Amino acid sequence: ALNLPEKALEGTISPYISNLSFLQVLDLSNGSFHGHLLIDFSRLPQLKNLSTRKNNFEGLIPQTVSHCRGLQILSLRENHFYGSIPQFLGILSELKLLSIGGNRLTGTIPVALANLTKLEWFSIGQSQIQGHIPPELGSLTHLMVFNMQMNNLTGTLPESLFNLSALWDLSFTTNQLTGHLPKDACRFLPNLEQLYMGAKNFDGPHPTSLSNATRLQVLTAERNKFSGPTSLELGSLSQLTYLNLGKNMLTNVPGNLELSILTSFTRCRMLEEVYLSKNLLSGILPTSVGNLTTTLSKFDLSSNQIEGTIPLALANLTKLIALGLSSNKIKGHLPPNIGQMHLQVLFLYDNALEGPIPLSVYQLVRKYTSNIGHNMLIGSISSSINNLTSLQRLYLSTNRLSSTLPPGLCELKDLWELYLQDNSFTGHLPLGLGFYHDEPHGYLCKQAEWR
What we know:
Number of helices: 1
CATH superfamily of one domain: Ribonuclease Inhibitor
Shape: elongated
Strand content: 25-35%
Helix content: under 10%
CATH architecture of one domain: Alpha-Beta Horseshoe
Number of strands: 36
Distance between the termini: 80 Å
Mean pLDDT: 92
């Protein structure tokens, strides 16, 4: 074996490595090697593991690799190899891992790869591969990881891929794939833990069969054209930690006054991040939102059609650090117990919130960004604002705030964006509050509007 991973080596690789005829492992990972891979692999017939990942190799994948018939691991990812995926890879029948993504590979996926019946790991992500996904790949029954994200693949997803019952990681995000997902998309994927299918043009309903993937931990389907009611069966995914369905056309269950998917999520006790922004979700926030798991740290429902008030029970989510409810139709007062939370990012702009800013807001001492602009808030900014020592961005523009600006604003040393325009403030700027010309992000209301 020749193992040189992470040895801070650089330069080109000597072709004399070809003389090591009994070599079984050649690992050059995580180095600074460059140039062409000028090794005659036909003279290394016993090679089982070839790894050059994370280097700067370039050129075509050497044709002589086809002579390494016992090769089990071929990892060439994150280099500068170019050209098509070689057809000869299909004769390396012992391959278990084929990872060639992160290069400049072009062309299509060879159907010959369906001959690799022992393949467990197949990754071609972050390349320039185009064309359709061969349905013949559905015969790779041992496949556990299939990563084809960030390419230029077109057409529809072959239904045969969803019969690969050993899969635990399936990623086809950021391609040009279109069409509906099969109705039974996840019915035969009991081991699936991660499913990435964002940034494409899938449409139609979200398959209810997702609930069959009971081990699912990560589900991303953002930036598609999925429509219809959000599947309440998602609540049965007890292992789910990360969910992103943002930027689709999903709706609430017809006839439900409350946003019922949130009640469904109360069964997902491992959730950490939920993103449902930029859909067509309607209804009011149920009080059951306070029963969501306390592991939840990021929760985004911005840019929907949510109505009603913010439930007091929301403050039960004590580990929540980022909350987005912007651009909805939420009305009423800000919850007075909001200070019980540990929010660092709070987005409530573009709603119909009214009343004064609760004093408890000024207890969010770890808050970095607060945007509650474009509402109907009244009253003054409390002198307690100097408690927000970590505050970097504050947006209060387009409300009905009045009175003078508190001197405590000057004590916020990390503040670099302040938006206060379109209010009814009076008096003078606090001494020391100002913005340099090379810091254009700070905007105060015009002096004429303060009076």
